[in-house]
Design brief:
Blueprint: E1 6-8, E2 11-13, E3 19-21, E4 24-25, E5 30-31, E6 36-38, H1 41-58, H2 63-79, H3 81-92, H4 96-121, E7 128-130, E8 135-141, E9 145-148, H5 163-170, E10 175-178, H6 184-200, E11 208-211, H7 216-223, E12 230-234, H8 237-249, E13 254-257, E14 263-266, H9 268-287, E15 299-303, H10 306-321, H11 330-345, E16 349-352, E17 367-372, H12 373-378, E18 391-397, H13 400-408, E19 413-419, H14 427-437, E20 441-446, E21 486-492, E22 514-516, E23 519-521
Parallel strand pairs: 7-22, 9-10, 9-12, 10-11, 12-13, 14-15, 14-19, 15-18, 17-18, 19-20
Antiparallel strand pairs: 1-2, 3-6, 4-5, 7-8, 8-21, 16-17, 22-23
Length: 530
């Protein structure tokens, strides 16, 4: 059986690890031929030192050089698109069309090109110049970045191709990518293309590296190593918190996307106006991709009444009628079922589903549960257990006061959505809820489901804990996402020729936006008055 090589220090080399693993086809539940190594610490440390040398080699490079790499990489991905799609479909069970072909792959190359554009423009560094004091500052690369990709986005969040990778490179950092064990072949092909792009654009050895798996202990050592600048992690809360504790202990930044149930509020006026339409929107959003989005609406909050009961009946019927999709892995299936069981033990009534199986391969029945607002307030932590997949919990509040009490109990989430009446009948309640909900979520939506994440500069794909590890940063939205992997660098009295070009008196491109003596401008630093 073939044991695939790891990409370390500019070359594909046989791993020295003694343990191997296989990916599993979630539709057949059978192993996919090909063994992948579990890298020992010595191998991981070799990658760290190679990335450190690469970081020193590229320090001071113009952003256009990183942009050239990102653009070249995006082009190579498109040239091998069909092969990537085939591999990802086999390893994840995600449909070829539209998910992988029309949605996720274009998003991935689009992110790389957006990052390239930002790196080439350079305004993301926020160059700040105070000419009277001769103090100047800007954001610059933080050093080698480790990226842990998740299982649910084999392209757009892949450790060696996704948004974190693109942002880290745009900031001028080498990347050590840790592939997700669910889709190692997909990650391997991405790494091959990244390596080719790195060679074609003159990146140093060690600028892009790939390992497939480490022990948990070595993962902890990796994110806390003194040569690592920062880490990005998307995945399970339990693992993320272990990594965060290790990184925090030594003061290393780590950006986490962990857990989110994304509450959706249906206010009374909206229910009275369009309960059937809301039931259709919600069921479609919740069951899309078998609920395996980090923005999946896992919690509904509404108010008791005849329209609410009609809504619940219609949603239940839609869940029962909808096909049962394939989950990403056996682990997702086990965790989903465990989450549902936790909700039931806490008093949630099972309206439909709740059992493993019913679909092709790894699967679980489309599941809908309900509790009262009083029950939720009595056990908010347990009733916010994430059941990641095709499942959702409906909270039926007795009145406005109970609906607000439920809102106050919410943990941090990526999103929060509020549906209200078009005739302003819900405006008073809307403002009361939004005032509280605004501090609980990264993105507040009105009259739309949260599952769509537009890749635009204004997007915030972040939020308070446990949605992420820090409420001030986003994993989607360039240039904001780039700054996670940058450090603020200040220069005090440094001679002109020794300054980075972005901080010199003359604007290096003529288009770079800089804050000079309190004013944002694309001009040069004015000559000192005599």
């Amino acid at each position: 059986m073939t044991i695939h090589a790891v990409l370390i220090d500019g070359e594909w080399r046989a791993s020295t690890g003694q343990q191997v693993f296989q990916a599993t086809n979630p539709k057949t539940t059978e192993g996919i031929p090909g063994d992948y190594p579990v890298s020992p610490w010595s191998e991981v440390e070799t990658a760290i030192h190679a990335a450190t040398r690469a970081a020193e080699a590229v320090r001071g490079w113009n952003g256009s050089r990183f942009a050239d790499f990102l653009d070249d990489y995006a082009n190579r991905i498109e040239q091998r698109a069909e092969e990537l799609i085939t591999l990802a479909n086999q390893e994840t069970g995600l449909p070829v069309s539209p998910r992988l072909k029309e949605v996720e792959l274009p998003r991935t190359t689009g992110q790389l090109r957006q990052a390239a554009k930002a790196a080439r423009d350079g305004s993301w560094v926020e160059a700040t110049i105070d000419s009277p004091s001769q103090i100047r500052s800007m954001f610059g690369p933080i050093g080698p970045v480790v990226v842990f990709g998740p299982n649910n986005f084999p392209f757009a969040f892949n450790g060696i191709a996704g948004g974190d990778f693109a942002a880290a490179v745009a900031a001028g950092n080498p990347v050590i990518a840790k592939a997700h064990s669910s889709h190692p072949a997909t990650s391997r092909l991405f790494a091959e293309l990244a390596h080719q792009a790195a060679q074609a654009t003159g990146m140093p050895a060690g600028f892009v590296q790939l390992i497939y798996r480490t022990s948990h202990a070595d993962g902890v050592k990796l994110v806390s190593h003194h040569f690592i600048g920062a880490a990005g992690y998307t995945g399970a809360r339990s693992t993320g918190l272990v990594l965060k504790e290790a990184a925090d202990r030594v003061g290393k930044p780590i950006y986490l996307e962990l857990s989110s149930i994304n509450p959706v509020y249906f206010l009374p006026g909206a229910m009275a106006e369009r309960a059937s339409a809301l039931a259709e929107q919600f069921a479609t959003s919740c069951l899309m991709a078998v609920g395996q989005f980090c923005t999946n609406p896992g919690l509904v909050v509404t108010m008791a009444g005849a329209h609410t009961e009609d809504f619940i009946r219609q949603v239940t019927e839609r869940f029962q009628a909808a096909p049962i999709g394939t989950l990403l892995s056996e682990g997702v299936q086990k965790n989903l079922h465990a989450g549902i069981q936790t909700l039931v033990r806490q008093g949630a009534t099972l309206l439909t589903g709740g059992s493993v199986g019913g679909g092709t391969g790894f699967s679980c029945q489309n599941t809908l549960l309900r509790v009262t607002g009083h029950q939720f307030v009595q056990a908010p932590e347990a009733l916010q257990t994430e059941a990641f997949g095709n499942s959702s919990l409906i909270v039926v509040a007795a009145d406005e006061a109970e609906m607000l009490a439920v809102t106050r109990c919410l943990e941090g989430n990526l999103t929060g959505s509020i549906y209200s009446a078009t005739d302003s009948a819900d405006d008073s309640l809307y403002h009361k809820i939004a005032l509280i909900l605004r501090q609980k979520v990264g993105r507040l939506l009105n009259d739309k489901m949260p599952t769509g994440v537009a890749v635009v500069p204004s997007m915030n794909h972040g939020g308070p804990f446990p949605a992420t590890g820090h409420p001030g940063f986003t994993a989607v939205g360039i240039p904001s996402s780039i700054r996670r992997f940058a450090m603020l660098q200040c220069y005090d009295g440094v001679r002109q020729q020794r300054l980075p070009s972005a901080l010199q008196d003359k604007n290096p491109t003529g288009s770079l936006w800089r804050r000079i003596d309190g004013t944002w401008t694309q001009g040069d630093v004015p000559a000192a008055k005599s």
